[in-house]
Amino acid sequence: MRPFGYFVHHQGRGHAERCAAILNALPPERPVTIFCARDDIFPPLPPQVELIVIPSLFEPTGAEAGTMDWVPTPETLHCAPLGWPGIRHAMAVIAGWFDRADPALMICDVSAEIAQLSRICSVPHVKILQHGDRGDAGHRAAYDGAAGLLAAFDEALAQPEWDDGMLSKTCFAGGLGVDTRVPERELARQRIGVGAEEEVILILSGGGGGGFAQAPLGVGARSRPGARWITIGPVVRDWHATEPGNIEHRGWVDNPADHVAAADLVIASTGNTTCQQILAAARPWLAIPEWRYFDEQHRKAEALAAAGAACVRPHLPSSAQAWTAALAETRATHRPALQRAMIADTPAQDAADWLEALAARLWPVELSLTTPTPSGAHS
């Protein structure tokens, strides 16, 4: 069997978690090679998987030549600074593997440059589809040149500008890479130490950003003093914040699913893992998008609002009156059945089966080809 290649972006853990979910659902005879700048962000991987650590494509080490930044970046590329030996080495490792392994597919999660490298090297690629304003030349080249697109969310969250050409080659897998099993509410409350009758408002920040600011959360907690406000994940400290006694900062926790299941209402950004956990638990959700490249979270928030899956604000409310209105709207517009319907029963297996079917379509007959060796070169 020809192997699959898999590039995994190392910011946050969502990319690595959905990679592991897919690979654990693939046939055990399908070899896979992962390329990532970190090897410590992955859940357990099956034995047929090899992981190759490559240099980061965007974090400098000090060895870069900083004299070439005056050369403009073409519209077909996003992050391709000149004079970076780490980028050069990472691309060489991947291109060398293409030549040796003769892969069936390269899965790109996510990099427009590596998607284009795959196409240039005559390797069919699958591009992970993300929300955002991605109509630029770089994204279009990655999407248009892909053999298929894979979306870790439900089709109801597709952006309106995605045309039939994109949608026809997209596999939608809501819940992919996330443990969407929902703990029983009363048991979850016992495990996180809150009473059965307490009103719990959960503020959830994931690992992809710096978290919400302390001051507006304090204003919110003061606006609803009868509720117990609990934050998990990072919180940005504000020197001017005046917090009441009904807000508690727990930082990183090992059981975020228990906290979501125990909550009466969740305030969270729109990162992929966070989205899937809240939709699976079908909780009233005040979605506050964070800054991301290409307005990814803002466009996802728009899709969630359009589908009726969340109440959205562009930022945390800035007054007690605004908090009261936002919380009331979140409860009034809550549609739990619609939220649950956005999580597939077996998203990882669906994605794995789709990848296998795509590979079979691309390579209907196993070919044994000898790569011609140019004079004076080594294959």
If you had to describe this structure to a student in words, what would you say it looks like?
With 379 residues, the protein is α/β, with parallel strands linked by helices. Helix content is 35%, strand content 15%. Helix 9 (272-281) links the parallel strand 13 (265-268) and strand 14 (285-287). Helix 1 crosses helix 13 (347-362), helix 6 packs across helix 8 and helix 7 crosses helix 11 (320-332). The chain starts with a strand and ends in a 17-residue tail after the last helix.
How are the secondary structure elements laid out?
Layout: E1 4-8, H1 14-25, E2 32-36, E3 49-53, H2 85-101, E4 105-109, H3 112-120, E5 125-129, H4 137-144, E6 148-151, H5 164-167, E7 170-172, H6 185-192, E8 200-204, E9 212-213, H7 214-223, E10 228-232, E11 235-236, E12 247-249, H8 256-262, E13 265-268, H9 272-281, E14 285-287, H10 296-307, E15 311-312, H11 320-332, H12 336-341, H13 347-362
Parallel strand pairs: 1-2, 1-4, 2-3, 4-5, 5-6, 6-7, 8-10, 8-13, 9-11, 10-12, 13-14, 14-15
Order of helices and strands: EHEEHEHEHEHEHEEHEEEHEHEHEHHH
The end-to-end span amounts to 21 Å
The number of helical elements comes to 13
| Beta strand % | 15-25%
Q: Choose one word for the global shape.
A: globular
Q: How would a crystallographer describe the biggest sheet?
A: 7 strands, parallel
Number of strands: 15
Mean pLDDT: 95
How do the strands of the widest beta sheet line up side by side?
3-2-1-4-5-6-7
Radius of gyration: 23 Å
Helix-residue proportion: 25-40%
Structural class by helix and strand composition? alpha/beta
Segments where pLDDT lies below 50 for 5+ residues? 374-379
